[in-house]
């Protein structure tokens, strides 16, 4: 553990103007506050914040960050408060400490909810000042170094999994590869102990068998470049054990089949020599096609720059070579921590668009699981590059689609997307993008995000925005059907009710707004009697039996509502406009619409029944037909022709039975109304190709 004077001397060595007195006060404060607390290792607890502060000095960070590292656990684990820290160390330090501090554990929260809320607070603080992230990463790295002292295997695995899923990818996103690699290695040891032991054992065996092979290859690379007049430093190492295991899992290969387990770093003086060195290596040894990547011309989203290539050394060994300048190497190892200067007021220089994306995800995420899912999507790395027609570059995850691209450009563009062109060719919105694609989004002001987009959107930003838009539309439509029900309920009261009675009812029911009341009615969280009592207290006092309550007097029209939002057309009977319909309303769910003669209605005895009607302007719906066709060539085509002549679109077609001389199909058709569906069935029955056709 660093002693007080050693820590101060480290800071003064690179920041002579630092406030030595504040550093000393912070060191003493954390020792006093943590007092006799012990870590699982048996060490004094204050050794942890001191070591985290030491990690910050290795990155040569400012005095406020060092003090924050010393104090980062005091608010969570001692009686210290943020106000006290602000009084003693200033507002800047207090804000940083508050950003790193976890929320107090709330017993009513689930583990995932606590994790999500902690992550939410941390990410918001990080978006305002990246130093919060740097302290948090150092805090997690030191905790991982001492993780083996924790006796509970479940707790070790939980911490390791959180590190692998959240903190290692975050370190990667800000380019702190040293932190990322060590976190992954330590987490890998806990999560996959057998695989860890096997791979590290194999690597040790290769080192003992191969002797100086890594050194020999490094020397050969250096000599080849020296003969070409390029001054270089060359270092070789085996690939990271976790990286090897991940490659084995992704490619479904054994350790013996992984041939490129050696990686070499070539450091040169300037960018020109990077490309010169690349040319020399490709002329000296055969390169492996498809393995060259130019991250200098197109850096990674975290600012990483380097040339990557793979060579076949002496016709046997595959080796990976990374070529970069010394400045690039320093930045690549420590990322934003190595080059971010802080302006007055704590604002960092540099572009961090992905941080803004994270803040959007925080605003859009509905619950703990959704926040964690979308955040993980946003911080994982494997990327492709795509361009707008004007040449603007966007980095997206592999598997991204035009919808992801549209939301990456702007949330409004994503919301209004109706189609896309990739490299000038019209494609569906679900089409995966490739590296270098030029993507043009076709938009319409009348368009809005569709729930189906979640089936192919892969970025956290896109998924969060889609879910938010769908939730807002769903709430608006539930409120609309709730208002129709409210108006019908109000008509049953003996006394007319106005706006004041409605406002009073909202207060009596302890709701926040009139819209909340309509949503509660639409989702059956309030029954008719509760609404009546809230509007006119005592109005149902003389009606103790539910059978005596006033009944619905007119049907509620479903025009203007989207199937799947406020209401759902039942799959059992597939009602279409023209059918007599009834709604089943259960607490917390939308209205389920059935045809009045549906056999499944008998299962709805526990639901609130609503009399519904189709409006004359109601859009069509999907009807279902069972058709038995003769088993001979052309019959399916003839049935399809009947659908086309009657302007009905086939949504789904499934063969359910194949038994000579008949084939039976279930067909889902988009139709305008019952009359339209009836005409189609009549046309099918009149066809020589169809043995029988019925609606189901």
From TrEMBL:
Could you say which EC number(s) this protein's record lists?
2.7.6.5
Do the record's keywords include Chloroplast?
no
UniProtKB keywords: Transferase
What are the residue boundaries of the TGS domain, all occurrences included?
382-443
Q: What is this protein called?
A: GTP pyrophosphokinase rsh
Q: Gene3D superfamilies per the record?
A: 3.10.20.30, 3.30.70.260, Beta Polymerase, domain 2, Hypothetical protein af1432
Role played: In eubacteria ppGpp (guanosine 3'-diphosphate 5'-diphosphate) is a mediator of the stringent response that coordinates a variety of cellular activities in response to changes in nutritional abundance.
Q: Which reaction does it catalyse?
A: GTP + ATP = guanosine 3'-diphosphate 5'-triphosphate + AMP
Residue intervals of the ACT domain: 624-696
Tell me where in this chain the HD domain is found.
45-144
The taxonomic lineage of its organism, from the top, reads:
Bacteria, Pseudomonadati, Pseudomonadota, Alphaproteobacteria, Sphingomonadales
Native species? Novosphingobium pokkalii
Q: Tell me one GO molecular function of this protein.
A: GTP diphosphokinase activity
Give the first-level EC class, as a single word. transferase
Q: What's the family?
A: Belongs to the relA/spoT family.
Segments passing through the bilayer: none
Q: What CDD domains does UniProt report for this protein, alphabetically?
A: ACT_RelA-SpoT, HDc, NT_Rel-Spo_like, TGS_RSH
PANTHER family (UniProt xref): BIFUNCTIONAL (P)PPGPP SYNTHASE_HYDROLASE SPOT, GUANOSINE-3',5'-BIS DIPHOSPHATE 3'-PYROPHOSPHOHYDROLASE
Record has Transmembrane helix as a keyword: no
- Where along the sequence do coiled-coil regions lie? none
